[in-house]
Structures are given as C-alpha cells and as structure tokens.
Write a structure and sequence with these properties.
Length: 203
C-alpha cells in the first residue's frame, strides 16, 4: 500500500514538471510568434518604403526626360553658296562659300569656308559642286580635320553635278570644310555650288 502511495506521488510530481515544461514551451512559442509578427511588420514597412523610393525614382527620371525633351538640343545649322567663279584652283585649296543663307549658332565662317563644331555630337553635312564644263573633271573632298569623310566628283561636261552627304561624329572644336583634291586650272561656276550642315544630336 505504501509503495502505491509513493508511486502516485512520483507520478503527480512528474506530471507537474511536464506541465511546467509545456507552459514554458508555450510561452517561448508565443514570444517567438510575437517576434515573428513584429519582424513581418517591419519587413512590410520596409517593402512599402522601397516601393515608394522606386516610384519617386521613376517620377524623377520621367521629369528629367520631359525636361530634357523640352530643352532639346541646341539649333546648329548652316547653308552657304559659292557666288563668285573660281578658276585655277590649287590642290588642297579650301573652297569658300561666301553667301550664307542660314547660320544658326554662327558656327560657319563665310570668310574661310570652315565650319567649327560647337558641341560634341552627331552631325550631317552635304555639299554640291558643279562643273564649268571646261574639259576637266573636278574632284573635291569633304574634310573633318585631317580626315576625308566624303569625296565629290563632277565630270568635264558643262554643269555636271556632284553631291555628297556625310553623317559623322564630331568633337567640339573640330572643323569641317570642302577642299580641292587635285590641282585644276579649271574651276567652279558661281551660284551653283553649295555647302551645308547641321547638328543631329548633341552628346
């Protein structure tokens, strides 16, 4: 009988210990759940802040894009015509197109025949030469600095025409001109030969 009482007491004590451990584990689990919930809330707040920052960044990019489109590239353009007759042209002689029709930004010099690029960018240039028909072919070069970017040719037949268009990258300060490629004692009739160009896009 005594051993039964002792056994009962032992079982009761053990049950109380297990209950205490279960209570401790439940409290620990509750604390973990509370902490997890808090961390989830923090993560959600951070996610919303990130979304807000991304939206602000997109809005800023859009605003800058609109501002850039509104500002646009500067207008740089010219067109000029050779008025006077030109004969006995020495090799590498720069052709001066002295009558200026358009000269936005004043980058073309009608005294020297030289266009000086005012900005880094992509440019387009065009030139037309016309033969006086004096039994000699005409050959000219469109030069950017020391490099030839286009070659113009007109045959010996009267008022034969040669035209070239060149699209090229230019650095600020680079110069573009039309020059005689070969010596010729024959030349150009006034009023027919032209040189023009414009800025397509500024970098």
């Amino acid at each position: 009988m005594k051993w039964l009482i002792v056994l009962t007491l032992v079982v009761v004590v053990r049950c109380q210990e297990y209950e205490s451990r279960v209570d401790a584990l439940e409290q620990m689990l509750q604390r973990v759940q509370t902490k997890t919930t808090h961390q989830s809330n923090v993560i959600e707040v951070l996610r919303q802040k990130i979304v807000a920052v991304e939206r602000s960044e997109d809005n800023l990019k859009n605003a800058l894009s609109v501002e850039k489109r509104a500002a646009g590239d500067p207008v740089v353009a010219f067109t000029a015509t050779r008025l006077g007759n030109l004969t006995n042209i020495p090799i590498y002689h720069t052709i001066v197109f002295e009558q200026v029709g358009v000269n936005e930004h004043n980058a073309y010099n009608s005294n020297t025949g030289v266009f000086t690029c005012p900005y880094d960018g992509l440019y387009e240039f065009a030139s037309t030469i016309v033969s006086a028909g004096e039994q000699s072919n005409l050959n000219f070069q469109m030069m950017k600095g020391s490099a030839s970017i286009a070659f113009l040719h007109a045959t010996l037949y009267e008022y034969d025409m040669g035209t070239q268009v060149a699209v090229t990258h230019c650095n600020k300060g680079e110069q573009v001109l039309i020059r005689q490629a070969t010596h010729s004692r024959f030349g150009l009739p006034g009023g027919f030969c032209t040189f023009s160009g414009h800025l397509i896009h500024m970098y």
